């Protein structure tokens, strides 16, 4: 019954339906997919919110004791149950021994980040010395740009995708301002073609080829927050570096979602947050990557004492012995309470592995896509039927968990009525609803239930009109 690694999700759904002698949209297909899911027990490691606790819920429409359909792990991942235990361990240590906690226990506070950093290797595809856990995402982006963006009169642009996340956009603008560069000319934004939602790789590569000599840094998101498009990180990296650019990625929506091989791809630098697919809680400890090839050449512009080698850090002689690579970019001592929540989540990732998670994710999101297309593809014969369009690319290599949906019915109506029925997802301007089934804690049955709620919401939108 194991699907072949090359079986497309739609084929798996149809194969199971024919084995069960039912329609592919039948509930039994979802239940069978769950039965066959080897990762299903990981759901037990998380707190799944209950319907009754969701602020926008309408209790007349749901069973209050049921689990919500949480499809918002692309924004804030759910809480691993071990977070509380790990926090309590450190709070207890603090209560019982005060400052001695810096040096003893499972996570000595001085090296708290270092005790868990190895758990990130598989997730980003890098070795331990290339990964730093520190600060917030945008702070790390600034620290990296301060070192990698060294404009010259000939090479002064930063290349990025259209509608990049506002924080990235502002970070780039302010970095250009720091160097006194005109923003219009120096911020090279690639837009999708007229009438298209996502970027074509050939268009990205063409801009790099034509304008690469004037580009100092290419900064792309790994996976676009709005469209859900996964960019071809190795191809962009290779093309940019061939033109002499540094190539970096904001991996906020890619980390813990798709497989990454930052080291092997030769990416120059990257940063990410930990509160989305990494489930470390709001404002969690962010990450940064600098390829080891830059360990001795790219230095931090701003230095603090945690960039100093541990062996002599406490000599306090003010003679900097900088740690090579990204760990030299650490400025302050690690926030141990944030280390705890990330630790709890990364241990789950270690058990599950990114490879297996991605495999499930392809099928889970593929099942969602299959069901949406089944009910809501554009049917020219029936002009009254609501249409749901998926703006996320349909190619598996070009997306992660998330699908971004647009509707012929008013988006706010659809969103609010999903929320009332216990679907947790988010809306993003201009007109998208992002839904992200996460393989660690979402089930195929969640997708099935979501589709049925969507049907009832869209039916009610129709009768309202
Ligand atoms: C793509 C992207 N970049 C940057 C940020 C901002 O992150 P932070 O507030 O952690 O700096 C986010 C937040 O959601 C994001 O999605």
Automatic annotation (TrEMBL):
<keyword id="KW-0007">Acetylation</keyword>
<feature type="binding site">
    <location>
        <position position="333"/>
    </location>
    <ligand>
        <name>pyridoxal 5'-phosphate</name>
    </ligand>
</feature>
<dbReference type="InterPro" id="IPR015422">
    <property type="entry name" value="PyrdxlP-dep_Trfase_small"/>
</dbReference>
<dbReference type="Pfam" id="PF22580">
    <property type="entry name" value="KYNU_C"/>
</dbReference>
<feature type="binding site">
    <location>
        <position position="138"/>
    </location>
    <ligand>
        <name>pyridoxal 5'-phosphate</name>
    </ligand>
</feature>
<dbReference type="GO" id="GO:0019441">
    <property type="term" value="P:L-tryptophan catabolic process to kynurenine"/>
</dbReference>
<dbReference type="GO" id="GO:0034341">
    <property type="term" value="P:response to type II interferon"/>
</dbReference>
<dbReference type="InterPro" id="IPR015424">
    <property type="entry name" value="PyrdxlP-dep_Trfase"/>
</dbReference>
<feature type="binding site">
    <location>
        <position position="137"/>
    </location>
    <ligand>
        <name>pyridoxal 5'-phosphate</name>
    </ligand>
</feature>
<feature type="binding site">
    <location>
        <position position="221"/>
    </location>
    <ligand>
        <name>pyridoxal 5'-phosphate</name>
    </ligand>
</feature>
<dbReference type="GO" id="GO:0034516">
    <property type="term" value="P:response to vitamin B6"/>
</dbReference>
<feature type="binding site">
    <location>
        <position position="253"/>
    </location>
    <ligand>
        <name>pyridoxal 5'-phosphate</name>
    </ligand>
</feature>
<keyword id="KW-0662">Pyridine nucleotide biosynthesis</keyword>
<dbReference type="GO" id="GO:0097053">
    <property type="term" value="P:L-kynurenine catabolic process"/>
</dbReference>
<dbReference type="GO" id="GO:0019805">
    <property type="term" value="P:quinolinate biosynthetic process"/>
</dbReference>
<feature type="binding site">
    <location>
        <position position="305"/>
    </location>
    <ligand>
        <name>pyridoxal 5'-phosphate</name>
    </ligand>
</feature>
<dbReference type="GO" id="GO:0005829">
    <property type="term" value="C:cytosol"/>
</dbReference>
<dbReference type="GO" id="GO:0005737">
    <property type="term" value="C:cytoplasm"/>
</dbReference>
<dbReference type="InterPro" id="IPR015421">
    <property type="entry name" value="PyrdxlP-dep_Trfase_major"/>
</dbReference>
<dbReference type="GO" id="GO:0043420">
    <property type="term" value="P:anthranilate metabolic process"/>
</dbReference>
<feature type="binding site">
    <location>
        <position position="250"/>
    </location>
    <ligand>
        <name>pyridoxal 5'-phosphate</name>
    </ligand>
</feature>
<dbReference type="GO" id="GO:0034354">
    <property type="term" value="P:'de novo' NAD+ biosynthetic process from L-tryptophan"/>
</dbReference>
<keyword id="KW-0663">Pyridoxal phosphate</keyword>
<comment type="subunit">
    <text>Homodimer.</text>
</comment>
<keyword id="KW-0963">Cytoplasm</keyword>
<keyword id="KW-0378">Hydrolase</keyword>
<comment type="pathway">
    <text>Cofactor biosynthesis; NAD(+) biosynthesis; quinolinate from L-kynurenine: step 2/3.</text>
</comment>
<feature type="binding site">
    <location>
        <begin position="165"/>
        <end position="168"/>
    </location>
    <ligand>
        <name>pyridoxal 5'-phosphate</name>
    </ligand>
</feature>
<comment type="pathway">
    <text>Amino-acid degradation; L-kynurenine degradation; L-alanine and anthranilate from L-kynurenine: step 1/1.</text>
</comment>
<dbReference type="GO" id="GO:0042803">
    <property type="term" value="F:protein homodimerization activity"/>
</dbReference>
<dbReference type="GO" id="GO:0005739">
    <property type="term" value="C:mitochondrion"/>
</dbReference>
<dbReference type="GO" id="GO:0030429">
    <property type="term" value="F:kynureninase activity"/>
</dbReference>
<feature type="modified residue" description="N6-(pyridoxal phosphate)lysine">
    <location>
        <position position="276"/>
    </location>
</feature>
<comment type="function">
    <text>Catalyzes the cleavage of L-kynurenine (L-Kyn) and L-3-hydroxykynurenine (L-3OHKyn) into anthranilic acid (AA) and 3-hydroxyanthranilic acid (3-OHAA), respectively. Has a preference for the L-3-hydroxy form. Also has cysteine-conjugate-beta-lyase activity.</text>
</comment>
<comment type="similarity">
    <text>Belongs to the kynureninase family.</text>
</comment>
<feature type="binding site">
    <location>
        <position position="275"/>
    </location>
    <ligand>
        <name>pyridoxal 5'-phosphate</name>
    </ligand>
</feature>
<dbReference type="InterPro" id="IPR010111">
    <property type="entry name" value="Kynureninase"/>
</dbReference>
<dbReference type="GO" id="GO:0005654">
    <property type="term" value="C:nucleoplasm"/>
</dbReference>
<protein>
    <recommendedName>
        <fullName>Kynureninase</fullName>
        <ecNumber>3.7.1.3</ecNumber>
    </recommendedName>
</protein>
<dbReference type="GO" id="GO:0030170">
    <property type="term" value="F:pyridoxal phosphate binding"/>
</dbReference>
